[in-house]
Design brief:
12% of the residues lie in helices and 37% in strands. The protein contains 2 helices and 12 strands; from the N terminus they run H-E-E-H-E-E-E-E-E-E-E-E-E-E. The strands form 3 sheets. It has a 5-stranded antiparallel beta sheet with strand order 5-3-12-7-10, with no helix packed on it. Strands 4, 6, 8, 9 and 11 form a 5-stranded antiparallel beta sheet that branches.
Length: 226
């Protein structure tokens, strides 16, 4: 029985014409080599498609070749193998509502979704795998002139059939009075448990102030199973 991976096997050096090399010595080496191969696996520098979905939680089928095992471990440390869905929020005009009850749903485009998650209507992100997700979003507000008013950016769950936002699992960020005539960035991020098939949308609203154009980004990164 091999010692590795629970320990490191030590061997006694052999001398020519002095020590007898028996079959047991060779078999022991073979056991240790087999244990190393089984632990490292086949093609350890290749990130391949899922073979056993019940044991492999990565909701992705892409491939990537690393230079060596150390390079792949570095990739794991920097979350390079985390599947992500990245969208671009289309430039659009947002009107003002003094009561902050009219959330403006944003349209998205330019998907980078190797694991799926593309919503054909451009409404947002369709979650392709249940688990814990990191949701991030930002918008740039572009007033046509100096203005005041409170602005709100939300990421929320919506009905995948109708697109209507449900205000469940919502995270938001407010932006106080905007007194600049150039673009100002507003960001939001949260980690939420999400189920497969849920639609995630970005919404904005502004209280008073002028009608202005925005653009931005909405993304989701899969972290792990719930």
């Amino acid at each position: 029985m091999a010692t590795y991976p629970k320990g490191v096997k030590t061997f006694e050096p052999k001398k020519d014409y002095v020590d007898d090399v028996l079959a047991a010595h060779v078999n022991l080496l073979q056991d240790e080599i087999r244990a190393i191969q089984q632990t490292i696996g086949i093609e350890p520098t290749l990130l391949g498609p899922k073979v056993n979905p019940s044991r492999d939680p990565r909701p992705t089928g892409g491939t990537r070749t690393y230079k060596d095992i150390r390079d792949r471990l570095r990739g794991l440390t920097w979350n390079e193998e985390r599947p992500a869905i990245v969208t671009s929020i289309k430039p659009q005009w947002v009107r003002s509502n003094p009561y902050l009850v009219d959330d403006w749903p944003l349209k998205v485009t330019n998907f980078s979704a190797p694991m799926g998650g593309f919503d054909k209507g451009g409404r947002g992100i369709l979650i392709p795998e249940s688990g814990l997700w990191l949701l991030t979003g930002y918008v740039y507000w572009y007033p046509t002139s100096r203005t005041v008013g409170h602005r709100l950016l939300k990421i929320t769950r919506a009905d995948p059939k109708t697109g209507r936002h449900m205000y469940e699992l919502t995270c938001d960020a407010g932006l106080p009075h905007l007194r600049k005539s150039r673009g100002v960035r507003q960001s939001v991020a949260c980690v939420l448990p999400l189920n497969k098939g849920w639609l995630i949308r970005a919404l904005v609203s502004q209280h008073s102030g002028r009608r202005m154009q925005i653009r931005g980004n909405l993304s989701a990164v899969w972290l792990r199973k719930k």
